[in-house]
């Protein structure tokens, strides 16, 4: 897979390193000469250019990329890069970094963004996840279909503890994708039972999040009455 990353700062270089370790082809683009540090990620291709200019993206052969990641520290730049990648070059997958949570509403399919990653939101979500059991935590927003990746740790008193996945009437437009149980990562089947303390990851429509949280948080005594 060929991936172009706009922004060769610490974030961009870190992403590049991970992708290269997984066998992908990576191009780093940055307009600042000081950001071009080939020795830090020697396996990557490097391009000194402005990723907001069509001529630069032509030089980068963006049409050959499977994924473009807009990872600069400027939300305006990330939006422009995303829009150009999607509309001018037809890149199948565009991932954009959101620096200011106030701008998050802009990072959607109208701007060519398939997945928006908000570092401040993700950090706050991880803090919430660490201290809250039974509360739904939004980890990641997908632009298409208005869906989110959400997490909830099943409380000890949940009525669903001990219930098989296939026996649960999940809300519409939600899908249980992973169960994290201790150090194990489980792909859920209908026969798997839910256990108290399980971290459950769902892809869910935003409009269904409250229903999902209510379902998972119902106490045994409330369900019995």
Q: Can you tell me about this structure?
A:
This protein has 2 domains: 2-118, Rossmann fold (3-Layer(aba) Sandwich); 132-216, 2-Layer Sandwich (Alpha-Beta Plaits). 26% of the residues lie in helices and 27% in strands. The chain contains 6 helices and 11 strands. The N and C termini lie far apart (54 Å).
Give the helix/strand layout.
Elements (H helix, E strand, L loop, with lengths): L1 E5 L3 H12 L3 E6 L14 E4 L5 H6 L7 E4 L4 H13 L5 E6 L16 E4 H13 L5 E6 L4 E7 L20 E8 L2 E3 L12 E7 L3 H9 L2 H5 L1
Parallel strand pairs: 1-2, 1-4, 2-3, 4-5, 5-6
Antiparallel strand pairs: 6-7, 7-8, 8-11, 9-10, 9-11
What is the residue-averaged pLDDT? 88
Gyration radius, in Å: 20 Å
Under CATH, the homologous superfamily of the largest domain reads NAD(P)-binding Rossmann-like Domain
CATH top level of the largest domain is Alpha Beta
Major pleated sheet: 11 strands, mixed
Our count of helices gives 6
When the domains are counted, the total is 2
The CA-CA distance between the termini, in Å, is 54 Å
